[in-house]
């Protein structure tokens, strides 16, 4: 296999990444750990070569199958919320897509589980993980709204697709002290929530207004 161009050239260069990190800082991302992860994760390797000049723009980009790679600000915001009280040992991600958010998580969290409902995307993400030598990712083709019961409980769960309401099954796979970060609501009116599980139950906090693809049941 050809060695991936991790550093990138032209618009995939360090300068483009530094500019992106400055934008995220201005937009309110405070965690230096997260900013450094965004700086050093090669987003250009997750998208079609024809789009690589836009790889470090702070926008979502198409990845085929009517899906998008998440906007870097959103990846940073969700990762920051996930690790606010410390880095969890085991995290579940719903909606692998091309695997960009998964790769960011895997460079921080010891064990990452991720589920994608579209088989072609799942296969492509798997190739990306191999290419980058990320060996702490367990990826599966399936319906992530049911979580991953065999690997539960998780210290963190992160969803990259928006259900209409919080799936109770996902919430129940959090450990005590764990947090679920997910967008909820219909397209055009979605809130990014952080749900904390304590010994007494669940507390909900709204982080932002966001725009995600819908969480769809079943596989394709
Ligand atoms: N973080 C990803 C974002 C991908 S977009 C990235 O950076 O590439 C969200 C993904 O969620 C899509 O690929 C979509 O197919 C997937 N998805 C939607 N509903 C799902 C479900 N129930 N289970 C698993 N994946 C789902």
Question: Please, could you describe this protein's structure?
Answer:
The protein is 26% helix and 27% strand. With 220 residues, the chain is an alpha/beta fold. The chain has a domain of 148 residues: Vaccinia Virus protein VP39 (Rossmann fold, 3-Layer(aba) Sandwich). A 7-stranded mixed β-sheet has the order 5-4-3-6-7-8-9. A two-stranded antiparallel ribbon has the order 1-2. A hairpin with a 2-residue loop joins strand 8 and strand 9. Helix 1 packs antiparallel against helix 2. The two termini are 29 Å apart. The chain binds S-adenosyl-L-homocysteine. The site of S-adenosyl-L-homocysteine (SAH) has 25 residues, from strand 2, helix 4 and strand 4.
Give the bound compounds.
S-adenosyl-L-homocysteine
User: What string gives the helices and strands in order?
Assistant: HHEEHEHEHEEHEEE
Mean pLDDT: 94
Q: What fold name goes in the CATH topology slot of the domain at 63-210?
A: Rossmann fold
**Overall CATH class of the domain at 63-210:** Alpha Beta
Note the topology.
Blueprint (H helix, E strand, L loop, with lengths): L13 H13 L5 H9 L20 E4 L2 E3 L2 H11 L7 E5 L5 H7 L4 E6 L2 H13 L5 E5 L12 E6 L8 H5 L1 E11 L5 E9 L2 E10 L10
Parallel strand pairs: 3-4, 3-6, 4-5, 6-7
Antiparallel strand pairs: 1-2, 7-8, 8-9
Helix pairs in contact: 1-2
